[in-house]
Design goal:
Layout: E1 24-28, H1 35-46, E2 50-52, H2 53-63, H3 66-77, H4 83-93, E3 104-106, H5 112-121, E4 124-131, H6 134-142, E5 144-147, E6 153-155, E7 175-176, H7 183-197, H8 199-205, E8 210-214, H9 219-229
Parallel strand pairs: 1-3, 1-4, 2-3, 4-8
Antiparallel strand pairs: 5-6, 5-7
Helix pairs in contact: 1-9, 2-3, 4-5, 6-7
Bound molecules: BIS(adenosine)-5'-pentaphosphate, magnesium ion and zinc ion.
Length: 230
Protein backbone atom coordinates (compact mmCIF):
# COMPACT_ATOMS: atom_id res chain seq x y z
CA UNK A 1 0.00 0.00 0.00
CA UNK A 2 1.35 3.43 0.87
CA UNK A 3 4.54 1.91 2.20
CA UNK A 4 5.96 1.25 -1.29
CA UNK A 5 9.70 1.99 -1.03
CA UNK A 6 11.11 4.57 -3.41
CA UNK A 7 14.68 5.77 -3.38
CA UNK A 8 15.27 9.52 -3.64
CA UNK A 9 15.39 10.81 -7.21
CA UNK A 10 19.14 11.36 -7.06
CA UNK A 11 19.84 7.71 -6.30
CA UNK A 12 17.50 6.26 -8.91
CA UNK A 13 18.49 5.52 -12.48
CA UNK A 14 16.36 6.69 -15.38
CA UNK A 15 15.67 3.03 -16.06
CA UNK A 16 14.29 2.11 -12.64
CA UNK A 17 11.07 0.10 -12.70
CA UNK A 18 7.99 2.05 -13.79
CA UNK A 19 5.21 3.13 -11.47
CA UNK A 20 3.18 0.10 -10.34
CA UNK A 21 0.38 -0.57 -12.83
CA UNK A 22 -2.64 -0.50 -10.53
CA UNK A 23 -1.44 2.30 -8.29
CA UNK A 24 -2.14 6.00 -8.43
CA UNK A 25 0.18 8.99 -8.78
CA UNK A 26 -0.22 12.27 -6.89
CA UNK A 27 0.85 15.59 -8.44
CA UNK A 28 1.53 17.91 -5.54
CA UNK A 29 2.50 21.57 -5.37
CA UNK A 30 1.36 25.14 -4.75
CA UNK A 31 -1.22 26.90 -6.94
CA UNK A 32 0.40 27.70 -10.28
CA UNK A 33 3.20 25.16 -9.84
CA UNK A 34 2.36 23.54 -13.18
CA UNK A 35 0.34 20.50 -12.08
CA UNK A 36 -2.28 20.90 -14.81
CA UNK A 37 0.39 21.75 -17.39
CA UNK A 38 2.41 18.58 -16.69
CA UNK A 39 -0.60 16.29 -16.27
CA UNK A 40 -1.13 15.76 -20.02
CA UNK A 41 2.30 14.17 -20.54
CA UNK A 42 1.93 11.96 -17.51
CA UNK A 43 -1.47 10.74 -18.75
CA UNK A 44 0.16 9.91 -22.08
CA UNK A 45 3.09 8.12 -20.43
CA UNK A 46 1.10 6.08 -17.93
CA UNK A 47 -2.40 5.76 -19.43
CA UNK A 48 -3.86 6.81 -16.08
CA UNK A 49 -6.71 9.35 -16.26
CA UNK A 50 -6.18 12.80 -14.72
CA UNK A 51 -8.39 13.41 -11.69
CA UNK A 52 -8.26 17.12 -10.88
CA UNK A 53 -10.49 18.09 -7.96
CA UNK A 54 -10.26 21.73 -9.09
CA UNK A 55 -11.56 20.83 -12.58
CA UNK A 56 -14.31 18.66 -11.07
CA UNK A 57 -15.43 21.46 -8.76
CA UNK A 58 -15.40 24.01 -11.62
CA UNK A 59 -17.50 21.61 -13.74
CA UNK A 60 -20.00 21.23 -10.86
CA UNK A 61 -20.11 25.00 -10.47
CA UNK A 62 -20.73 25.54 -14.19
CA UNK A 63 -23.47 22.90 -14.16
CA UNK A 64 -25.08 24.54 -11.12
CA UNK A 65 -25.22 21.29 -9.08
CA UNK A 66 -25.64 21.42 -5.30
CA UNK A 67 -21.96 20.48 -4.97
CA UNK A 68 -21.02 23.46 -7.14
CA UNK A 69 -23.20 25.78 -5.06
CA UNK A 70 -21.59 24.53 -1.84
CA UNK A 71 -18.03 24.88 -3.20
CA UNK A 72 -18.43 28.26 -4.94
CA UNK A 73 -17.81 30.58 -1.96
CA UNK A 74 -14.72 28.69 -0.83
CA UNK A 75 -13.21 28.63 -4.33
CA UNK A 76 -13.87 32.27 -5.04
CA UNK A 77 -12.30 33.21 -1.70
CA UNK A 78 -9.25 31.02 -2.41
CA UNK A 79 -9.97 28.77 0.57
CA UNK A 80 -9.96 24.99 0.60
CA UNK A 81 -13.33 23.31 0.11
CA UNK A 82 -14.20 21.20 3.23
CA UNK A 83 -12.63 17.73 3.37
CA UNK A 84 -15.97 15.92 3.58
CA UNK A 85 -17.07 17.33 0.19
CA UNK A 86 -13.75 16.53 -1.49
CA UNK A 87 -13.49 13.01 -0.07
CA UNK A 88 -17.06 12.21 -1.21
CA UNK A 89 -16.22 13.49 -4.69
CA UNK A 90 -13.11 11.28 -4.92
CA UNK A 91 -14.89 8.20 -3.57
CA UNK A 92 -17.46 8.53 -6.34
CA UNK A 93 -14.83 9.21 -9.05
CA UNK A 94 -12.77 6.15 -8.12
CA UNK A 95 -15.79 3.90 -8.67
CA UNK A 96 -15.68 4.68 -12.40
CA UNK A 97 -14.31 2.00 -14.72
CA UNK A 98 -11.36 4.06 -16.01
CA UNK A 99 -10.00 4.37 -12.46
CA UNK A 100 -9.48 0.63 -12.12
CA UNK A 101 -5.73 0.79 -12.85
CA UNK A 102 -5.08 3.87 -10.76
CA UNK A 103 -5.34 7.56 -11.62
CA UNK A 104 -3.24 10.71 -11.73
CA UNK A 105 -4.44 12.95 -8.89
CA UNK A 106 -3.94 16.66 -9.61
CA UNK A 107 -4.53 18.95 -6.63
CA UNK A 108 -5.65 16.14 -4.33
CA UNK A 109 -5.00 15.33 -1.50
CA UNK A 110 -4.51 18.79 0.00
CA UNK A 111 -4.87 18.06 3.71
CA UNK A 112 -3.69 15.25 5.95
CA UNK A 113 -7.34 14.23 6.47
CA UNK A 114 -7.73 13.86 2.67
CA UNK A 115 -4.52 11.80 2.45
CA UNK A 116 -5.67 9.55 5.27
CA UNK A 117 -9.02 9.01 3.58
CA UNK A 118 -7.28 8.28 0.27
CA UNK A 119 -5.01 5.69 1.90
CA UNK A 120 -8.15 3.74 2.84
CA UNK A 121 -9.46 3.52 -0.72
CA UNK A 122 -6.50 3.55 -3.14
CA UNK A 123 -2.81 2.76 -3.39
CA UNK A 124 -0.44 5.65 -4.13
CA UNK A 125 2.98 4.66 -5.48
CA UNK A 126 4.57 8.10 -5.88
CA UNK A 127 3.90 11.73 -4.94
CA UNK A 128 5.57 14.11 -7.37
CA UNK A 129 5.97 17.57 -5.86
CA UNK A 130 6.54 20.44 -8.30
CA UNK A 131 8.47 23.02 -6.30
CA UNK A 132 8.17 26.70 -7.26
CA UNK A 133 9.03 29.68 -5.03
CA UNK A 134 6.11 31.93 -4.00
CA UNK A 135 7.65 34.85 -5.89
CA UNK A 136 6.96 33.15 -9.24
CA UNK A 137 3.36 32.18 -8.55
CA UNK A 138 1.47 35.44 -9.04
CA UNK A 139 2.85 36.09 -12.54
CA UNK A 140 2.09 32.51 -13.56
CA UNK A 141 -1.48 32.57 -12.31
CA UNK A 142 -2.38 36.08 -13.45
CA UNK A 143 -1.25 35.24 -17.02
CA UNK A 144 -3.03 31.90 -17.22
CA UNK A 145 -5.86 31.07 -19.61
CA UNK A 146 -7.50 27.73 -20.26
CA UNK A 147 -9.43 26.11 -23.08
CA UNK A 148 -13.14 26.05 -22.29
CA UNK A 149 -13.56 22.83 -24.27
CA UNK A 150 -10.67 20.60 -23.12
CA UNK A 151 -9.20 22.51 -20.10
CA UNK A 152 -5.69 22.70 -21.67
CA UNK A 153 -3.63 25.32 -19.82
CA UNK A 154 -1.78 28.25 -21.46
CA UNK A 155 0.00 31.45 -20.41
CA UNK A 156 0.11 34.90 -22.01
CA UNK A 157 3.94 34.92 -21.98
CA UNK A 158 5.31 31.53 -20.94
CA UNK A 159 3.10 29.21 -22.98
CA UNK A 160 0.83 30.97 -25.51
CA UNK A 161 -1.27 29.09 -28.06
CA UNK A 162 0.29 28.88 -31.54
CA UNK A 163 -2.72 30.74 -33.01
CA UNK A 164 -4.13 33.44 -30.71
CA UNK A 165 -7.35 32.29 -29.05
CA UNK A 166 -7.31 28.79 -30.61
CA UNK A 167 -6.51 25.71 -28.50
CA UNK A 168 -3.44 23.79 -29.74
CA UNK A 169 -4.88 20.56 -28.29
CA UNK A 170 -8.46 20.50 -29.55
CA UNK A 171 -8.79 23.39 -32.02
CA UNK A 172 -11.66 25.14 -30.18
CA UNK A 173 -11.65 28.92 -29.88
CA UNK A 174 -13.08 29.25 -26.38
CA UNK A 175 -10.40 30.57 -24.04
CA UNK A 176 -11.31 31.40 -20.44
CA UNK A 177 -9.77 33.01 -17.38
CA UNK A 178 -10.53 31.42 -14.02
CA UNK A 179 -12.57 33.48 -11.51
CA UNK A 180 -9.98 32.75 -8.79
CA UNK A 181 -6.99 33.85 -10.89
CA UNK A 182 -6.49 37.31 -9.45
CA UNK A 183 -3.74 38.60 -7.22
CA UNK A 184 -5.81 38.83 -4.00
CA UNK A 185 -7.22 35.33 -4.27
CA UNK A 186 -3.83 33.90 -5.21
CA UNK A 187 -2.38 35.21 -1.94
CA UNK A 188 -5.15 33.46 0.04
CA UNK A 189 -4.59 30.27 -1.97
CA UNK A 190 -0.85 30.41 -1.26
CA UNK A 191 -1.49 30.89 2.42
CA UNK A 192 -3.93 27.92 2.42
CA UNK A 193 -1.21 25.91 0.67
CA UNK A 194 1.44 26.74 3.27
CA UNK A 195 -0.74 26.16 6.33
CA UNK A 196 -2.94 23.23 5.25
CA UNK A 197 -1.26 21.45 2.30
CA UNK A 198 2.52 21.80 2.71
CA UNK A 199 2.53 19.69 5.95
CA UNK A 200 1.43 16.79 3.74
CA UNK A 201 4.92 16.70 2.21
CA UNK A 202 6.37 15.32 5.45
CA UNK A 203 3.44 12.92 5.79
CA UNK A 204 4.36 11.41 2.41
CA UNK A 205 8.13 11.65 3.04
CA UNK A 206 7.65 9.43 6.08
CA UNK A 207 6.04 6.90 3.74
CA UNK A 208 9.02 7.09 1.33
CA UNK A 209 6.97 7.92 -1.73
CA UNK A 210 7.71 11.65 -2.02
CA UNK A 211 9.87 12.97 -4.88
CA UNK A 212 10.46 16.69 -5.50
CA UNK A 213 11.20 18.18 -8.93
CA UNK A 214 12.33 21.71 -9.69
CA UNK A 215 9.33 23.53 -11.14
CA UNK A 216 11.21 26.79 -11.56
CA UNK A 217 12.54 26.02 -15.03
CA UNK A 218 10.92 25.84 -18.43
CA UNK A 219 7.94 23.56 -18.99
CA UNK A 220 9.84 20.98 -21.08
CA UNK A 221 12.62 20.65 -18.48
CA UNK A 222 10.10 20.11 -15.68
CA UNK A 223 8.48 17.46 -17.90
CA UNK A 224 11.82 15.66 -18.39
CA UNK A 225 12.45 15.57 -14.64
CA UNK A 226 9.01 14.09 -14.09
CA UNK A 227 9.54 11.53 -16.88
CA UNK A 228 12.78 10.48 -15.16
CA UNK A 229 10.88 9.87 -11.93
CA UNK A 230 8.33 7.70 -13.70
P1 LIG B 1 -7.10 23.92 -8.40
O1 LIG B 1 -7.83 24.04 -9.64
O2 LIG B 1 -6.49 22.63 -8.02
O3 LIG B 1 -6.03 25.08 -8.36
P2 LIG B 1 -4.56 25.17 -7.66
O4 LIG B 1 -4.08 24.08 -6.83
O5 LIG B 1 -4.62 26.47 -7.00
O6 LIG B 1 -3.61 24.99 -8.79
P3 LIG B 1 -3.68 25.66 -10.18
O7 LIG B 1 -4.63 24.90 -11.04
O8 LIG B 1 -3.93 27.12 -9.96
O9 LIG B 1 -2.18 25.50 -10.66
P4 LIG B 1 -1.43 24.33 -11.42
O10 LIG B 1 -0.38 23.78 -10.52
O11 LIG B 1 -2.37 23.36 -12.03
O12 LIG B 1 -0.69 25.20 -12.52
P5 LIG B 1 -0.92 25.29 -14.12
O13 LIG B 1 -0.37 24.07 -14.76
O14 LIG B 1 -2.32 25.67 -14.43
O15 LIG B 1 -8.05 24.35 -7.18
C1 LIG B 1 -8.85 25.50 -7.25
C2 LIG B 1 -9.69 25.63 -5.97
O16 LIG B 1 -10.55 24.49 -5.83
C3 LIG B 1 -8.89 25.67 -4.67
O17 LIG B 1 -8.45 26.96 -4.35
C4 LIG B 1 -9.92 25.14 -3.68
O18 LIG B 1 -10.87 26.14 -3.36
C5 LIG B 1 -10.63 24.07 -4.48
N1 LIG B 1 -10.00 22.74 -4.37
C6 LIG B 1 -9.48 21.99 -5.41
N2 LIG B 1 -9.01 20.83 -4.95
C7 LIG B 1 -9.22 20.82 -3.61
C8 LIG B 1 -8.93 19.89 -2.58
N3 LIG B 1 -8.32 18.72 -2.83
N4 LIG B 1 -9.27 20.22 -1.30
C9 LIG B 1 -9.91 21.38 -1.02
N5 LIG B 1 -10.21 22.31 -1.94
C10 LIG B 1 -9.87 22.03 -3.25
O19 LIG B 1 0.09 26.50 -14.44
C11 LIG B 1 -0.20 27.82 -14.02
C12 LIG B 1 0.25 28.81 -15.09
O20 LIG B 1 1.67 28.78 -15.19
C13 LIG B 1 -0.27 28.49 -16.50
O21 LIG B 1 -0.56 29.67 -17.16
C14 LIG B 1 0.90 27.75 -17.17
O22 LIG B 1 0.92 27.94 -18.58
C15 LIG B 1 2.10 28.40 -16.51
N6 LIG B 1 3.23 27.47 -16.31
C16 LIG B 1 3.17 26.16 -15.95
N7 LIG B 1 4.42 25.63 -15.84
C17 LIG B 1 5.28 26.67 -16.12
C18 LIG B 1 6.72 26.76 -16.17
N8 LIG B 1 7.50 25.69 -15.89
N9 LIG B 1 7.26 27.96 -16.49
C19 LIG B 1 6.47 29.04 -16.78
N10 LIG B 1 5.10 29.01 -16.74
C20 LIG B 1 4.53 27.83 -16.43
MG1 LIG C 1 -4.47 23.12 -12.04
ZN1 LIG D 1 -8.84 22.65 -26.02
Amino acid sequence: MNGARRAPLSSRSLHSSPVHMASSIVLFGPPGAGKGTQAGNIVEMTGKPQVSTGDMLRAALAAGTSLGVEAKGFMEAGQLVPDSIIIGLIEERLKEADAENGVLFDGFPRTIAQAEALSQIAEVSVVIAIEVPDGRIVERICGRYTCGACAAVYHDTFNPTANPGVCDQCGHAEMKRRADDNEDTVRTRLSAYHTQTAPLADWYRQRDIFVAVNGDQDIAKVGSEIAAVL
